Hints:
alpha/beta; two-stranded antiparallel ribbon; 26% helix; 18 strands; 7 helices; eight-stranded mixed β-sheet; globular
Amino acid sequence: xxxxxxxxxxxxxxxxxxxxxxxxxxxxxxxxxxxxxxxxxxxxxxxxxxxxxxxxxxxxxxxxxxxxxxxxxxxxxxxxxxxxxxxxxxxxxxxxxxxxxxxxxxxxxxxxxxxxxxxxxxxxxxxxxxxxxxxxxxxxxxxxxxxxxxxxxxxxxxxxxxxxxxxxxxxxxxxxxxxxxxxxxxxxxxxxxxxxxxxxxxxxxxxxxxxxxxxxxxxxxxxxxxxxxxxxxxxxxxxxxxxxxxxxxxxxxxxxxxxxxxxxxxxxxxxxxxxxxxxxxxxxxxxxxxxxxxxxxxxxxxxxxxxxxxxxxxxx
Length: 316
């Protein structure tokens, strides 16, 4: 009996110790940063901050990161609050400067493979998540920023015969675990800007002109309040700041939720943004092993039409 009682006491002591350690890990967050913890717009939920901070500290201790700032994103929160307001769910945290900033960011739009399967997402809340190639879905987990690539997208009109060049910088992400195929999926961060309705206009003196003296023109579209192809997209102003922070100086990005969080929805203690959970009903995770064969078969059954040359722009 004495041995049994001692065993119970030992288990109790271990449980108390583990609980104390967990509390200590949580209270390790400095008071100024803890003040930003919450579930409201512009605040960061506790589990998201804890995981983002743990990832950053791990990479710093490994010598992989020397940047004084790190990033986090909560993809369970709404991206569109209505009335032109965007949800602030991407976080820029610089602890040495005691700086915390919450900004808007797009989530993966997913796809609707008509007649086969629909894993698309609305603008406001993401219901579908996954890591399959060509799925256009957001994948939660650990990332590190990598090289920056700037590419020419074309010209657009800003006034009568006044042209502007659109060049967009893309920050490649590298992942691990379920996000390990981020480079293969071409997942990264960039400004939420693109050109639509492309056509060709004569501009022989441009360094971007083709052998016939034509350059591409389009209509500038800012989709900061919309969806991405699985990448992390920011407003042009925010993108400029973030890219300057990580160009040649990598850091970490933690995106919530992971597949384990999606599987745990409905269980006690699991975090999900309440307004989005009400809107989507229940989130779904699409593992690449299941979804990639479906996408590949769909592409085989529905080949895209052959590419057509861009038309000549009408008007001057």
